[in-house]
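Structural biology now treats backbone shape like a language. To illustrate, our science desk offers a sequence and the tokens encoding its fold:
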Amino acid sequence: MKTQNPKASVAIQVLPSAKNQDDLIRIVDEVIAFIKSKGLKCHVGPFETTIEGEDYNELMDIVKECQHVAIRAGAERVSAYVKIVYRPDGEILSIDKKISKHAEA
């Protein structure tokens, strides 16, 4: 994971159309695999995946490509809910700072 001083954080929930739950999970798994392949710090939760990085444009490109990945994986359409924190002149509160105290032992 290459994030040293995150300037932006994005949480994305991808909701593809799917024939059944197995198909839905497969498509979402492909989107998550794409996100992880980018090498940025990320956290997969039950409703959304959070990504942080130093380059805002890189994060926005990832968000955009998530829709394309879902369509290529077989979704007819895809909805996405996105939350963005951006601080170009300073550090944001990192994923680790937000959740490390809640991690299960």
Summary: The helical segments are 21-37, 56-72, 95-99.
